[in-house]
Amino acid sequence: MGGGVQVDLHGRQALVTGGARGLGASIVRRLAGAGASVLVADVRKEQARELCEELRDGGGGEARFVELDVRDAGAVAEVFRELDGEGRPLDVLVNNAAVDVSKPVEHLTADEVTRVVTTNLLGPMYLCLETYRRMVARGGGHIVNILSTASNRTWTEAGPYSAGKSGLRAFTHTLFKEAQRDCPGIGVTGIIAGGMETPFVLERFPDADVSLLQSPDVVADAVLYALSVPEGSVASELVVVPRREPSWP
User: Fold this and answer.
1) Are 197 and 22 in contact (CB under 8 A)?
2) How do residues 74-132 score in pLDDT, each as one tens digit?
3) What backbone phi and psi angles, to 5 degrees, belong to 153?
4) How far is CA 104 from each of CA 107, 152, 164, 166, rounded to the nearest angstrom?
5) Is 95:146 a contact under the CB 8 Å cutoff?
6) Are 186 and 198 in contact (CB under 8 A)?
7) How far apart are CA 54 and CA 29, in angstroms?
8) Annotated active-site residue in 126, 132, 161, 225
9) Strand, helix or coil at 137?
10) What is the predicted pLDDT for the residue at 4?
């Protein structure tokens, strides 16, 4: 794709969870560059604000920070009540926020499992619940859920992460089918992303061979591609992995 995807998002508002860094920041930059007004939803205040300032000062588009812990259903609902009050509905939702705890099952704690599954599965579901009903009422919009190769297969030390991503993939496919029934103007896309050269990977695996990883910008381009599909069609699922991806298929 190489940044060549063309889509005009002027006049539209997007929200990206986990948008402060890594893949989330790449997606924010791509959406803002296409003309969208982007809400950078994250718990990392300083990094999110720095990204918004970077885009504003560098002429890269419009973005503003929204502090949000996706695990908090009440906080998610409050964000949408505020958007309703502003009269600026959400046109694009990108569920990107994710965490992981890479441990054998015998060493995992209940708190660790809860944190991973709540962030990676329940959080996106909370966002979808608030977004989808509003999109149905308005007659259109697009939801993109960032998945993982772990949603198709798993490996050791990936129990909670794979469980969360597998569940999110199933939920995404269900939502796609319901959108076909409820409102043809709503797009729902799951993006299965392989290993990326981001803090999410490198902080957990500092010795990872970066030659086996892809740029997050390539996956961000896949998000734009999903949004660029002409009316009458929809990309229900996209797979973007490094050519030498060791965990696919």
Assistant:
1) no
2) 999 999 999 999 999 999 999 999 999 999 999 999 999 999 999 999 999 999 999 99
3) -150, 170
4) 6, 19, 16, 18
5) yes
6) no
7) 10
8) 161
9) helix
10) 64
Q: What's the alpha-carbon Rg for the chain, to the nearest Å?
A: 17
Length of the chain: 249
Answer whether 120's CB lies under 8 Å from 168's CB.
yes
- Chain centroid to Cα 181, Å, comes to 24
Tokens of 232: 């009458």
3-state class (DSSP) for residue 95: strand
Euclidean distance between CA atoms 83 and 88, whole angstroms: 6
39: amino acid identity, one letter: L
Burial class (CB within 10 angstroms; exposed 0-12, middle 13-18, buried 19+) of 237: middle
Rounded distance between C-alpha atoms, residue 175 and residue 138, angstroms:
17
Tokens standing for residue 196: 């990326």
Peptide bond into 249 cis (omega under 30): yes
Q: How far apart are CA 12 and CA 4, in angstroms?
A: 20
Q: pLDDT tens, 137-188?
A: 999 999 999 999 999 999 999 999 999 999 999 999 999 999 999 999 999 9
Whether the predicted model's global pTM rises above the 0.90 cut: yes
CA distance 141 to 238: 18
pLDDT, position 5: 74
161 is catalytic: yes
In angstroms, the CA 26 to CA 224 distance is 11
92 and 36 in contact (C-beta within 8 Å)?
Answer: yes
Per the DSSP assignment, residues forming a β-bridge with 17 are 41
* d(C-alpha 46, C-alpha 62), whole Å: 17
